[in-house]
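Assemble and predict.
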Amino acid sequence: MNKEPIGAGELPVQERVRNFNEVVSGYQEKDALAEAARCLQCKNPTCISGCPVNINIKEFIAQISKKDYSGAYYTIRKTNNFPSICGRVCPAEYQCRRACVLNRNKTSFASEEAININFLERFAGDYGMRFKLPAAPAAAGSRKASGLRVAVVGSGPAGLCCAGELAREGAKVVVFESLQSCGGVLRYGIPAFRLDREILDYEINSLVKLGVELRNNIVVGRTLLLDELFKEGFDRVFLGLGAGVPSFLGIKGENACNVYSANEFLTRINLMSAYKFPAYHTPVNIGRQVVVIGGGNTALDAARSALRLQMINGIKPDVKILYRRTLAEMPSRRIEIEHARQEGVEFKFLVEPREFKPDEKGFVRGLECLLCELKEADASGRRRPVALEGSGFSVPCDLAIIAIGLGANQVLSSVTPELKTDKHKDIIINPATMETSVAGVFAGGDIVGGEGTVIEAMGMARKASSGILQNS
Amino acid sequence: MKILSKDTLVDHAGLRIFRMVLDAPLISRKARAGQFVVIMASREGERIPLTMVESDSQAGTITIVFQETGFTTRMLGALEPGDSLYALAGPLGHATEIKKYGNVVLLGGGVGVAEIYPVAGSLKQAGNRITVIIGARNKGLLILKKELESLADNFYTATDDGSEGRKGFVTDILEEVLKKEKQDLVYAVGPIPMMKKASFVSGAAGVRAVVSLNALMVDGTGMCGCCRVSVGGQTKFSCVDGPEFEGDKVDWEELGLRNSMYCDKESHICRLNSLKP
């Protein structure tokens, strides 16, 4: 038996940096079988506790081993509505794989020996998609939400998940989305090279087939107010508003031309297809020397997108990620760091940006920085970077992308005082039911927990859908 | 999102300004003076903000006025009644604070004249005495003159070439109006140099000036930060914090530079489509 971990297929570096096609091609059947065979099928599996929605990992891997792929698909579907999406974007090395007994790392992320649970999940999910395995509605007699009308606000991971859960139980669900297309961060944030748009479209179409109605271009809080949803006849409301507001550094020169938030840069490319300009009409500027500030997945997505734009436009790739801590503390996925390195993204660690320097036309030309030193751990549990005075140096750049985090979307809460929020402007909920301070209104995803993962958002949405069912 | 009617306000020397009435029942119920919508003319289109000029909740319509300045506004100008926009979302941004100030001067330059129209109406209704000053490069480019003239207690026009009203700028007239009579508020919408000058002139006379900014936007709901402006040394998002700000606190130079960020791309896409950049 092969005990070496099985990697997933990947597009060759020279090919993939010239387009936005999906980089990881996933497992073939033989790969899935070989990787599943490495699973020890522990009597007391630890991996499951590492999964935010407690997928029965042991079970679905056993089913893959028995070539019962549809069984594996439905095992995952019991607690995760979108296995193909999570199999691609879940930070498995920080979650289930870290909890795998084969993991040899003591760090926050798993070693490569841990079972590639995410690739197996993706394999099972894609099998379900390929054979169009239906997300079957509950049997007519046992539907818990027949006749219930639910408004879901926001079509990101939380909203889509909640909509699917309730629609399967017979509820009439209408999803309200402010943008012209659905998917939330899966559409505007995560690039197609990490999540093929066909998968997102498939999952959204599946919801429509279940009877979910999508209403785009409606900004709840502006076009319609919360109380008006009830007046329109909705019995319950779920808020999956997301963490959509980009943070900035608050340093001098930050509003110079070609200094972008990662949200703006990625939205232009992903949602508005600016990489196909001028066939699509939204422009995005392409730098010759790009710096990206931050160490999370969004920073890597922005850096790899910027590098692709350079390659597509015949510019020598030059993209640097500047991060205040070191490689070990980077919260991004390890596989994405590896992919970014392969593609030619440079990493500069222990760097703190201090001032953007624009030219006479207002375009950024350089970034003044200080070096940092790591001190004792801070509230986040990571070692705290402290800038060293006198260590100043400058990094030339003609395009800069700030990817240092996101705050709560306040469009709705700012006009709905009865909807109680905490000091971060996140919505306060009853953790048992996910109900907010407004009766009949539930919430989940980043608007509740702050910035989290897709699977965490889905976990909260499932809990909220149970809350809605209990409450009805 | 359907275009119900379209009329040409200006078609003069290669410059066109259109007025369109759009079917938008939900937006029309909420729209208030000073707010804007974000539109996409086609599936491949950009999202651009446009100020609403009128709304009619009975008819379920909103009215936009736009000048063909770039590629997207020309795509929009090519649409006809019966066509539908690809996307329309709103109303966005804060509404103008309507109350009784006393004497208010409203200044409109170019297509900005359309934007002061609903504000003038609302302020008048709230019992203010309103002075309206509108201007353009020449007579052929002046819009909504009749409508505003009938609303205003005092009404002035200015053109760069003197072909209508005073030869000169609206801000020249503003200076005189401020000297002649005590004013309680100045409200200005137009090109950046005009709003900047209006803010300066008002400030010198000790009168508060409110301006409505035309920053570039993508989503229009606070998610991207494209529209950030410095106001009193603080970064604000025009879409959710504005679009109106205190004129004396706006960093006009920065706004002008940021609004020119895609000039080369704009010329490129216009040339490719055989449009004059």
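Chain B has a mean pLDDT of 95.
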